[in-house]
Hints:
The protein has 225 residues and is an alpha/beta fold. Helices cover 38% and strands 17% of the residues.
Amino acid sequence: xxxxxxxxxxxxxxxxxxxxxxxxxxxxxxxxxxxxxxxxxxxxxxxxxxxxxxxxxxxxxxxxxxxxxxxxxxxxxxxxxxxxxxxxxxxxxxxxxxxxxxxxxxxxxxxxxxxxxxxxxxxxxxxxxxxxxxxxxxxxxxxxxxxxxxxxxxxxxxxxxxxxxxxxxxxxxxxxxxxxxxxxxxxxxxxxxxxxxxxxxxxxxxxxxxxxxxxxxxxxxxxxx
Length: 225
């Protein structure tokens, strides 16, 4: 039976972009939202755009989380704690959660190129505290802009994957490598998400300064796996 990947908060640009790319790679996707109808409408639109045998459905976040083996958190930082508390009793043991959240200052009305201070150190470490111990966590996809994920063009960008759990790290890396042109790189422990998340604010600043929408990152001198 094919695995199910839930994109929680998946009606936003980043969530829809990841849903698009993973569905094109043959994965079964459930877009999650606070509004189930909104999720279903987004899923239908994506199915129509991709065509063929695209497997994309929509559901409320809790329904999507309950049926998945892998979940991607693509929600604003301001909504992360509330959602994870809501889902605490929903997860199946063994679920892999991949956190893409970045604590940008926009959560409190600030500039998108600035970061909020997070007591735990990063959004990913805050998520770890809110997830059941039976659920594994990786941090990834922070530096892939939504504009890069539209359509099916090759993406010239690396994705750093941080986790204290080898299964979660391997799963996130596998998904990243399914996007044409993307290279997953082992970013080390989950605590390194503090650095990776802050790089998003830097990229947003570069996008604004240079009037583009698709600044990404590439690391040189590393072996290609």
